[in-house]
Each structure stands twice: as structure tokens, then as C-alpha cells.
């Protein structure tokens, strides 16, 4: 049984993340999309919202024989991978600029859990500049992000924004 975790913040899930999930499907029997619960960050979506969103989107993927699940976790990625009996941690590399940070994380995770390998997968070129932060920034400032995030994510971002606007308007009355 080859089990991997695909850890990340996923705030929100982008088509770049989906591309990495699709590429990792033939390599593993089970992949756990592991959503980090980081209390230090102020996310656009709560960890619960992110998990539900990903759970709703994953069925759109033809997963073949690979079992895809979503879980949140706190603390160290290496500890979570060990706890789940995973043999690999999947991470996406978009460009050379990602590599240094990813290498440091992979080496640290290997030091923490020598049995668990990090597997780097190259994202499709069309997503090489796509990040959750860039998507949030562009969308919040009125830019278009279609084709770069799943439609459901775009819809939920729109709802978040209008909710936020209503909250601000009510405060200013
Ligand atoms: O989507 P991101 O924000 O690039 O994901 C980064 C993530 C969640 C993989 C990384 O921040 C992480 O592993 N955090 C958990 C804490 C941890 O294990 N830190 C040491 C990493 S060597």
C-alpha cells in the first residue's frame, strides 16, 4: 500500500494544486490532501471551509484506482505523515524559485522522519505563476482568476468578498 500526503495551506485550492494531485494519482494507492491548520495565519477560508471545498471538488477528478481523501492537521507535516503511515510527502514545484525553499523543507522532513521521502512533481507550465496568495490578491482587487482556480473556489471567493463588504457597510452605518 503506497500512501502519500499532499500537505499545504490550500487557502484556497488552485488549479495548480489540482494539477499536482492528478499527476500524483498513478504513483500512489492513496493520497491524503493534508490541510494545515495554522493559527498564526489569518486565512481567507477557515480550515473547515477549505476541507469542505476540497472534498466537493475532488470528485471532479478521475482518480482511477487511487483513493483520495482530505484531512486537516496541526503541527509538523513529518509527524502527520508518520501518524498516517505515509511513505511519501508530495510537493509541487512551479519554478526554480520554489526549489530552494522546498529543498530545505524536504531535507528537514527527512531528518525528522528518515523513512519518508519527499516527491517533487513539476506543475504544468500554465500554472507556473499560480499561487493561492496571488489568486486572493488579484481576485480581491477585482481581477479575473477564471481557469486558474476551480469554479467552486471562484464562487466561494465571491461570496466571501460580498460578505466582507456587507460587514464593512454595516459597520460604517
Ligand atoms: O501551501 P504551503 O503554504 O506552501 O504549504 C507549506 C506547508 C504546510 C507544507 C509547510 O508550511 C509545513 O509543512 N508546515 C507544517 C509545519 C512544519 O512541518 N514545519 C517544518 C517544515 S520542514
Polypeptide structure, described:
The protein is α/β, with parallel strands linked by helices and 173 residues long. 44% of the residues lie in helices and 18% in strands. The protein is built from six helices and five strands, in the order βαβαβαβαβαα. The protein has a five-stranded parallel beta sheet with strand order 3-2-1-4-5, sandwiched between helices. The longest helix is centred in the C-terminal third of the chain and has 22 residues. 4'-phosphopantetheine binds next to strand 1, helix 3 and helix 4.
N/C terminus separation: 59 Å
Strand and helix order: EHEHEHEHEHH
Tell me the β content.
15-25%
The neighbouring-strand order within the major sheet is 3-2-1-4-5
Q: Helices and strands: which structural class? A: alpha/beta
Can you list the ligands bound to this structure? 4'-phosphopantetheine
Largest sheet: 5 strands, parallel
Helix content: 40-55%
Assembly type of the chains comes to: single chain
What shape does the CA trace take?
A: globular
Uncertain regions spanning at least 5 consecutive residues: none
What is the gyration radius calculated from CA atoms? 17 Å
Discrete helix count: 6
Amino acid at each position: 500500500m503506497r500512501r502519500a500526503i499532499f500537505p499545504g495551506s490550500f487557502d484556497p485550492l488552485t488549479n495548480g494544486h489540482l494539477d499536482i494531485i492528478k499527476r500524483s494519482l498513478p504513483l500512489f494507492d492513496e493520497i491524503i490532501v493534508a490541510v494545515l491548520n495554522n493559527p498564526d495565519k489569518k486565512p481567507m477560508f477557515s480550515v473547515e471551509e477549505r476541507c469542505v471545498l476540497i472534498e466537493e471538488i475532488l470528485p471532479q477528478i478521475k482518480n482511477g484506482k487511487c483513493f483520495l481523501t482530505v484531512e486537516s492537521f496541526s503541527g509538523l507535516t513529518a509527524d502527520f505523515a508518520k501518524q498516517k503511515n505515509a511513505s511519501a510527502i508530495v510537493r509541487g514545484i512551479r519554478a526554480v524559485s520554489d526549489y530552494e525553499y522546498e529543498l530545505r523543507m524536504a531535507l528537514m522532513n527527512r531528518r525528522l522522519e528518515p523513512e519518508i521521502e519527499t516527491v517533487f512533481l513539476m506543475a504544468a507550465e500554465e500554472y507556473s505563476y499560480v499561487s493561492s496568495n496571488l489568486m486572493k490578491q488579484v481576485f480581491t482587487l477585482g481581477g479575473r482568476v477564471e481557469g486558474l482556480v476551480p469554479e467552486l473556489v471562484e464562487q466561494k471567493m465571491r461570496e466571501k468578498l460580498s460578505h466582507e463588504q456587507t460587514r464593512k457597510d454595516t459597520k460604517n452605518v
